[in-house]
Amino acid sequence: MIREADFSRDWPAIVAGMWDFYHFAGAPGWVPEDRETFETIMLDMLRNPVFRIFLAEDQGQAVAGIGVSQMPFMMNPEFTMIEELFWWSTDEAPPLAAARLLRHTVEWAKTTPGRVLLMMKALDNSPPGVERSYQKLGLNHVERTYIGELL
After folding, report:
1. How far, in Å, CA of 105 to CA of 101, rounded?
2. pTM of the full structure
3. What is the DSSP code (8-state) at residue 92?
4. CA 42, CA 125: separation in Å to the nearest integer?
5. How many CB atoms are located within 10 Å of the residue 147 CB?
6. 7-24 and 35-46 are packed helices; what angle lies between their axes, rounded to 10 degrees?
7. How deeply is 111 buried, as exposed, middle or buried, from its count of CB atoms within 10 A (0-12, 13-18, 19+)?
8. pLDDT higher for 96 or 78?
9. What pLDDT shows up at residue 6?
10. Do 101 and 66 contact (CB within 8 A), yes or no?
11. For residue 28, what is the DSSP state?
12. Predicted local confidence at residue 30, as pLDDT
């Protein structure tokens, strides 16, 4: 089952998934090293209504999640930009849980009124099926992003 997150009951699974994502992404130095501080910051941030989190559930447990932002597109406010910020999947998740979650996010984005741009991402170390899934969903590869801490 896929559903929108309920912070009052899902927060432990969400923060665990986000914590794992940021370390998987190869950027642990970009988030607070102390998990409690990380959790406090993320809870404050994600309560902003521009952020949405959807969860895949298996036997009553959140086993995968995706976080997106939804706001006017900066270069043309006639469009709404929905941007994937992170997604995660636990070792206990059924094999296609993450794929179903990504597909659900695309279908949810299609219900947004007006013209919508959807930006989904694949990390260099993402499973190869992620990019194939996005292509099957009708998304095009349009950029390569470089990120680094400037000293």
Report:
1. 6
2. 0.86
3. T
4. 24
5. 8
6. 120
7. exposed
8. 78
9. 92
10. yes
11. G
12. 80
Torsion on CA atoms 31, 80, 4, 100, rounded to nearest 10: -90
CATH of 2-136 given 2.30.250.10, 3.40.630.30, 2.102.10.10, 3.30.420.40 = 3.40.630.30
Express each pLDDT in 94-128 by its tens digit: 988 888 898 899 999 999 999 999 999 888 878 77
Mean pLDDT across the chain = 89
Q: What is the pLDDT of residues 18-45, one digit of tens each?
A: 888 888 877 667 888 888 998 999 888 8
- Local structure of 20: helix, strand or coil: helix
Domain ranges in the chain are 2-136
User: What are the DSSP E strand ranges found in the chain?
Assistant: 2-4, 51-58, 61-72, 79-89, 115-119
